[in-house]
Design a protein that fits this description.
Layout (H helix, E strand, L loop, with lengths): L7 E4 L29 H30 L2 H9 L6 E5 L6 H8 L12 H9 L4 E9 L3 E8 L4 E5 L2 E5 L5 E5 L9 E3 L3 H12 L3 H4 L2 E7 L3 E6 L4 E3 L5 H10 L1 H9 L2 E4 L7 E4 L17
Parallel strand pairs: 2-4, 5-8, 8-9, 11-12
Antiparallel strand pairs: 1-2, 3-4, 5-6, 6-7, 9-10, 10-11, 12-13
Helix pairs in contact: 3-4
Length: 295
């Protein structure tokens, strides 16, 4: 059902952003763990190397910033000529996201140098993709850009109108799903259900007698929940006292017996009373009934 995506590498050439230019890694020495000796020629040499690297880095940074701010093709060509073009892009960590979506978010057609790369904006665009949780960009000198992403974990199925969606714990929609073989995940329905799903599950999980039978939770008018159980029973909860109702159920053996018998609808919205109705069809044909209810 889900297509697995492996890490990808894209190489970029001078006139075409999708061609390879070999790159070697540059590692600048930043010091040594050995104890320095006074007036050591080795220390003096390292100090010179460090100073040269620092000056070069400042110069490179100034040139790249000038090119980024000006946006002129001449400065971009100069940056590429100086060895600061993006010659290779490596993607890692994605399984559910498409390579093309991530590459498009990076705008590789227009961004060919590190001078033109706005890493904060690229990061933000990548993290707006449905499956992406975090994205980290790093540069490997001279011309390789590495992008490491982490993806979100499916948490539940959310039904909205005639469609079903995978959502994560925050309620973010990851993908539409279809077909008979759906993931074995908690199911929710109704407007506003996605963003409140994790909070409800945290509450219901404290009451195993209900949690073990929960087939679908429907959000009604974005205010309250109706819980549909696998045995056909339905719990109509009030808008502001879900915990109180579940506590009462866990302690009242008579009410719990009605729930366990199956096919009963218990409405807790009335103050100080419970309306009980037996449904001959076990609620299987009721509006928004969970698949398999009444079985």
């Amino acid at each position: 059902m889900f297509e697995i995506r492996q890490s990808r590498t894209r190489r970029i050439e001078e006139h075409d952003p999708l061609h390879e230019t070999p790159a070697s890694n540059l590692v600048l020495p930043l010091g040594s763990s050995a104890e320095p000796r006074a007036f050591s020629p080795l220390l003096s040499r390292r100090a010179r190397i460090l100073a040269i690297a620092l000056v070069a880095g400042l110069g490179i940074g100034a040139m790249e910033e000038a090119a980024r701010l000006s946006g002129t093709p001449e400065l971009e060509r100069l940056a590429r000529f100086a060895g600061f073009g993006i010659d290779q892009v490596v993607l890692e960590g994605h399984r559910m996201s498409f390579d093309g979506e991530i590459f498009d978010a990076m705008d590789l057609g227009n961004v060919r140098t590190f001078a033109a790369l706005d890493s904060a904006a690229v990061k933000a665009r990548i993290e707006r993709l449905p499956w992406i949780d975090t994205a980290e960009l790093s540069r490997v000198y001279p011309g390789r850009l590495e992008v490491r992403v982490t993806e979100r974990t499916p948490y539940a199925l959310w039904s909205r109108a005639d469609r079903r969606y995978l959502i994560d714990k925050t309620g973010r929609v990851l993908a539409a799903v279809s077909g008979e073989a759906l993931p074995d995940l908690p199911r929710f329905a109704g407007e506003g259900a996605a963003s409140e799903a994790a909070s409800l599950m945290e509450t219901v999980s404290r009451y195993p007698a209900i949690a073990s039978r929960l087939a679908e939770a429907e959000r009604v008018s974005e205010r309250r929940w109706t819980l549909r159980l696998a045995n056909g029973s339905t719990l109509v909860l009030p808008a502001d006292n879900e915990v109180g109702v579940l506590e009462m159920l866990s302690r009242d053996s008579e009410l719990l017996a009605l729930v366990n018998a199956g096919g009963n609808s218990l409405d807790f919205r009335g103050p100080g009373r419970v309306a009980v109705r037996h449904e001959e069809n076990g609620g299987a044909n009721g509006p928004g009934a969970a698949p398999g209810a009444g079985s």
